[in-house]
Amino acid sequence: MDSVLTKPGTIHLVEKIKNKLAPIQKLLYLQSKIYFNEKTQRYEGIGEWLNSRRDGLIYGVKIPKYSFSTTTTATKIGANANLILEPSTETSAGRNDYENIVLFECIRCNGGVDADGMPYVTAIEGLDGRFDPIKNNTYIITPVYYRKITSDTQYSTFEYTDTPTTGFTACYGAYTATNVLRPFILRACYLDSDGKCSSKSGTIPGTYRSPTSIAHSLNYDLTNSKNRQDGLTFLTYGDICYQEDFMELMLGVKAPRSQVVGCCSYNYQYNLAAAETNVKRIILTDAQAAFFEIGSTVSVGNETVTNKDRNNIASHAIASSVKIISKTSLGNGNTALNLNLSSNITTKTNYFVSSMPWYNGTCDKIQGTYGARTTAALKNSKEPFRFQNCEWNLGVWEVFCNYMGICSTDGTNDTYEYYLAPDISKVTTSDGQTGWVKMTHITVDTKNAKYIKDYEVEKGARIPSAWSGTATTGYMSGCWLFGSAGSHEILAGGDLRAGALAGVGAFDADYATGSAYWSFGGRSSTIGHSAPAE
After folding, report:
1. How many CB atoms lie within 10 A of CB 15?
2. How far apart are CA 154 and CA 458, in angstroms?
3. Which of the 8 DSSP states describes residue 96?
4. Which pairing describes strands 119-124 and 107-113: parallel, antiparallel, or unpaired?
């Protein structure tokens, strides 16, 4: 039967059956290898299960240097050469050749990390009835991976494997702060929603909001992370390095934004064009309604709120993050956005509608581990996306870092010192002093926009001394570094001020360490208390 050919453009029936059975077979194998300890209410043997499936193969991607080629494409090499990852939507699952390879494992679970830095799992999706992404912190189980980078004048080659191999270095976060190898690594599926390092579906991502503020600035996150007693921290460079590495590896690109954009456009806010009673819709002008996509979400506020800005949580009292299910042209210059509301609402013309905030769990119904709610949402810059079962909204940078020095107004004659915080628990100040590691390699590249991958890496951070402009296909891989003297933040989350430039890998060095603005960030991290990267 395996040799029977089908019509061109179709998938063989046997292959379809195999693809359907593979996840079930994996879960059955998992169930036979691990053990749920009723006393501790935790799973045991996950690390052994992952190790038993190692293949030792090397999966690579060859990426052109900016000075050689500005293309965003890359070449998959080694065991990665012929593997394909297609995006999924809520209605269809794309092809995923990585699904049953342990290096790319990403099963969702509930769990956390102990104070000593060791992760634990309390429930596993598809394996038990305890898994709950709404009530409990939700992560993906990933193996410890090993990476090797080689370069010549034209290309940098990034290679990854699941097995300790000569010339390869363990990934960031592989070791606890006391240099004990973690049996596996947990990565947060969702952005923080309450300032407590949560990772839950169905919640509004943590951001600066008044009167209730979750101010994810560098100061805030460092202070709260280092004082935690449970081992959790906010976003670390190891979390973002994983996403950046694997997006490029699995999608075969240098700049992932060329494939999937995420929520990186400015967000729209308008007063309603007409008032209605007892409805499940809102009315905007035709021109305003054109900015809102079917399948995306809106929040509707009321006139009693003094501060009607997008970042005011109280302004979303009428309807918060409700999906647009259809549009209806009213023929009078107005369009109705029909909403997936559980009950009817009454609206007034001094109510307002905003496309912010989005809610965690937007991508939960996507049928694969990578994709967006619709095909259009991959690139319309208005929707979050899922990658490796983690949901991504705005931009995120891979490192908590400060620069200190004098910034000139035109980008010339700048002097900087760069600092990295590899272990947040050791940080006592946010100004690049105690607990910070000084960068020694400085790349001077004033007035040139490159992709993030083109800056040299030291201690896990890509830190140029000066840069300007943007490379719009590369998730804001360049920005303006002109500001006042003193220490500034390289964000651990994207900001909406430069919304069209944000995305996975975004950074902005022109903020004070305590500033938050509309920044999203604070992803729950189980590897924040880790040994410094080599």
Report:
1. 12
2. 20
3. B
4. antiparallel
What backbone phi and psi angles, to 5 degrees, belong to 59? -105, 125
What secondary structure does DSSP assign to 104-125, as a single string?
A: G--EEEEEEE-TTS-EEEEEET
Could you say which of 258, 281, 312 is where a domain stops?
258
pLDDT in tens, 143-162: 999 999 999 999 999 999 99
Rg of the Cα atoms in the chain: 23
Angle in degrees, CA 242, 466, 522, rounded to 5: 35
Percent of the chain scoring above 70 in pLDDT: 66
Q: How far apart are CA 232 and CA 235, in angstroms?
A: 10
Query: Same domain for 235 and 295?
Result: no
Which CA distances in Å does 411 have to 417, 456, 479, 523?
A: 15, 20, 12, 32
Place of tokens 């509930």: 110
Strands 443-444 and 464-466: parallel
**How many whole angstroms separate alpha carbon 69 and alpha carbon 479?**
20
Q: What distance in Å separates the CA atoms of residue 347 and residue 280, rounded to the nearest whole number? A: 10
147 & 170 share domain: yes
Cα–Cα distance for residue pair 43/124, rounded to 1 Å: 9
Q: Side by side, which strands form the sheet with 415-420?
A: 437-438, 415-420, 401-406, 486-490
DSSP conformation letters of 137-163: -EEEEE---EEEEEE-SSEEEEEEESS
Task: Specify whether 132 is located in the same domain as 167.
Answer: yes
Q: Provide the token pair at 244.
A: 């950046």
Domain residues for the domain of 193 are 33-258
Mean pLDDT value of segment 366-389: 90
Supply φ then ψ for residue 376, to 5 degrees: -65, -35
Q: Beta strand 155-161 with 59-64: parallel, antiparallel or unpaired?
A: antiparallel
Q: Which of 228, 258, 288 corresponds to the end of one domain?
A: 258
Say yes or no: 51 and 20 in one domain. no
Whether 518 is covered by a domain: the verdict is no
Which regions of 200-287 does DSSP assign to beta strands (E)?
Answer: 269-271, 276-279, 281-285
Interval 297-353: pLDDT, tens? 888 887 777 666 665 666 677 888 888 999 999 999 999 999 999 999 999 998 888
Length of the chain: 534
* This prediction's pTM: 0.84
31-57: string of b/e by CB count within 10 Å (b at 16+)?
Answer: eeebebeeeeebbeebbebbeebeeee
Beta-carbon-side half-sphere exposure of residue 265 (alpha carbons within 13 Å): 17
